[in-house]
Amino acid sequence: MRKGRPRSFDRDEALEGAIAVFWEHGYDATSIALLTNALGIGAPSLYAAFGDKRALFLEALDRYMRTYGAFTEHALAEEPDARHAVQRLLREAAAAYTRPARPRGCLLITAATNCSPQSADIAAHLREIRAVGARALSDKFAAATRTGQLPPDTDAHALAAFYAAVLQGMSAQARDGATTADLQQIAEAALRAWPQTAGQEAVGSTDAATK
Amino acid sequence: MRKGRPRSFDRDEALEGAIAVFWEHGYDATSIALLTNALGIGAPSLYAAFGDKRALFLEALDRYMRTYGAFTEHALAEEPDARHAVQRLLREAAAAYTRPARPRGCLLITAATNCSPQSADIAAHLREIRAVGARALSDKFAAATRTGQLPPDTDAHALAAFYAAVLQGMSAQARDGATTADLQQIAEAALRAWPQTAGQEAVGSTDAATK
DNA sequence: CTACTTTTGTAGTGATCGTTCCAGAAGTAC
DNA sequence: GTACTTCTGGAACGATCACTACAAAAGTAG
What band does B58 get if pLDDT is binned at 50, 70 and 90? Predict the structure, then answer.
């Protein structure tokens, strides 16, 4: 066994608690006092176990992405059809963003939307991870366009930006109190915007195609 | 003329500057030092002119809603057709959220997404204003359903939640660096989700209608 | 037991938070 | 000019920020 006085708390459990606090309040608004209070441990214990606030957040973020936020990667990786991937992505997001006894929305999306200038690097880091996700979506659409799952003139980048925006909007709606059913309906509406395959022409009695 | 030493700065100009700072950093992350630095005035002058930080934010928010954010109300009020209203709403949002020399996105949406527990009332206030906007959208859709502009089975609440989510997503995308053109393409994609009027059946080669 | 190692709670670091006191500056009124 | 009113800049308020020094506590090793 390890020498010295043993740690009085479970490190993984504490990290899980830190995820919840950062998820709820974001990076800047989460104070050390808020964390130590929620985790039931003293500040020196927290610093000894995780380093400083930034390191703790980054570790919490990493764990979040491999657990609560992993459904996005899974949907893209496990669904060969692009349409089904997006369908599953949106529907699972509707559930994930409104899970009971958990903070609303997505930590990656909301944790650093307003931050002070000295936390700008944290915001940039989250933005970069979001950009990677959007690029994965765009690549999926580009591949689907090449295999004929999407019309040849599909703008993969634009379509990925749309569904990324819908996810961010769903997260915001969840934070605003939307229910799971509300988010599911948003997801279904977003799926109606899926590009038409050849043979089916522009829908609706609209003049939307102005460009 | 008024007695006493005259104010050395223009109050409206200072309020405009405060809008910019709150717009950029949000409520919590905007410190008084950040404000006095940006406005070029001392803290006592700011407090004498606007009260405390909360009152200044609320006044800045009010002015924002009657200027930069007024396009949303205008689109709904001035466009009799619901489809055209949403079309105008989304397209103007794409421009408004990426205006050069102005902060990205929407102050109403982003200014209090992560906030400390003691600013929870500010967050609740913004949420309430967003809810009023969503309800206005929903009412517009309900009226359009009654006049036949939308299918009789349209869920006005769900459709409003969708477009509200798209607006919030566009704001987030703008903050993530999206260009005006990017947002315009998101807007056009969202418009493709507009419900089909009678006679045109479910679109696409999908099995989306699982419910 | 003693020696050693690591964690703990208390208390305190300097910095910054929102906010205000106060003395002097800058105007009007007479 | 003097009297009066209002605003400004500097300095400071207590509270909180992220973070840590320190010594007692709690374990293992011998």
Answer: very high
* Angstrom distance (rounded) from CA B199 to CA B206: 19
Q: Shortest CB distance from B113 goes to which of A110, A164, A205?
A: A110
Selecting from B168, B193, B204 the residue whose C-beta is nearest the C-beta of A169 gives B168
CA separation for the pair B14, A97 (Å, rounded): 39
pTM above 0.90, yes or no: yes
Which position has the token pair 């690549």?
A139
A102 φ/ψ angles, rounded to the nearest 5 degrees: -135, 155
Helix pair angle (B120-146, B71-78), 10° resolution: 20
Of A31, A171, A52, A57, whose CA–CA distance to A125 is shortest? A57
Q: Least CA distance to B182: which residue of chain A?
A: A158
CA distance A166 to B186: 9
In tens, the pLDDT along B111-153 reads 999 999 999 999 999 999 999 999 999 999 999 999 999 999 9
Integer Rg of chain B from CA = 20
Closest-CA distance, B88 to chain A, in angstroms, reads 11
Say how far apart CA A54 and CA A173 lie, in whole Å: 28
SS (H, E, C) A6-75: CCCCCHHHHHHHHHHHHHHHCCCCCCHHHHHHHHCCCHHHHHHHHCCHHHHHHHHHHHHHHCCCCHHHHH
Which residues numbered 116-175 in B keep a CB inside 8 Å of some CB on A? 116-117, 119, 127, 130-131, 155, 158-159, 161-162, 164-170, 172-173, 175
Max Cα distance, chain B (Å): 75
